[in-house]
Amino acid sequence: MRPAHLLFFGLFALGLGRLLTANSVALAVPLEQAHAAPSHTQPINTAEARPAQKQTANLADSLERAQQLSTRAAAYYQQGRYAAATELMLEVIELETSVLGPDHLEVANSLSNLALLYQEQGNYSEALPISDRALTIRAAHLDEDHPDIAFSMESLASIYKSLGNYETALILYRRSLAIYEQALGENNLGIATTLNNLASIYKRQGNYPAARVLYDRTLSIYETSLGADHPNVAIELNNLADLYRIQGDYDTALPLYERALTIRTSALGENHPDVATSLNNLGALQQVRGDYAAARLHYEQAIALQEKTLGQTHPNVANSLNNLGELYRLEGDYETALSLHERALEIWETALGPSHPDVATSLNNTAEAHRALESYDLAIALHERALIIRETTLSENHPAVAVSLSNLAGIYETQGDTSTAIVFYQRSLRIAEQTLGEAHPDTLTIANNLRALQASMPEAIDP
Predict the structure, then answer these.
(1) The whole model's pTM is what?
(2) Cα dist from 146 to 170, 261, 388, whole Å
(3) C-alpha distances in angstroms, 273 versus 338, 340, 442?
(4) Please, which residues have CB within 8 angstroms of residue 233's CB and are 6 or more apart in sequence?
């Protein structure tokens, strides 16, 4: 069986503006994890000593020192102390390279661990070439259908996903899953993380039925193999809850989020970054249910914990700031909302680049704050930029595109350009009905907005 899984996570928030029943929906994508290395490859939580080559006492001492540092890095990783773990892994790689050479498989293992740590800190530009180098080293030594190749592909896919390149990530995840299923079987613990990660891509692409099938399958594997209170079970509970929330089934989502938070707090401690993720996601659900006081409390707890463990400029901090900003906007404190959204946008653009889907989310919500302050031209410009990013990175028929179109329609309606507003509402409604269903709260809101506008101008053309 493959070793225990390593975890990484990324958050995403989505704001839906001008609703008849509620002004915004804040969504947060849950924790997702990368596979631990199979076979001889050792992940960060390595428990076995690497085989020291009997060359000289000094060389053996160097490898032993590298193992000790790797073990300490593993402990820091489990504690969420990613920067400290990174420093140790850099030293590990330097020692291993000096003894084994730059193209040894053990160096590839450590490179994979270093890439994972950079991901945890939101430094994807550093993680990508390191992960690619690890794959190159493994490909030179191993058969193309070796499980270690699958692991390396999946690690690389996770970075592409974080960078918003979902098509490339999907290709790599599918190739990785095919190798694992052939080597391990369809219900082996070793493939659970791959199933989860593939599901996360389907979810981001709006393919919710396919995502749920894979999440359910992953949860079943984890509960059977690891027990009902394992942190990986919490990951899948969180992922399923997020999926139900996106589809508007809040009553089903709530107990799943709460169970995930209980497991994480018990298993990882109150000060772990994963606990902050659960707090943020629970706050997002409470917000859409209208419990603003509880949502604010959980967002503020999440931000404090994320800043303490990840630093003030991590993308996850931006996510929680964004969600808190949406809450203030809903409550009518537009200046505070704008300040929080602008800070979140700066963090996301710096960490992810100007064309990432999460940046589009931040642009959308910043635009909504400007619209609340009646800065309509600026709001339109930001929404148009968000729309272009979403159409390019997600597809023209993604639910997030419907959000942008609906928000633009609302601004045009406010400005009295009803004909343009109707065109945008109609396109938004078609996308929402196709991807979310006619009974989804967001679909109903868009339909109500369109219907109300058409009723105010009888000459409007029916959709």
Answers:
(1) 0.69
(2) 19, 36, 40
(3) 26, 21, 31
(4) 219, 222, 223, 226, 227, 263
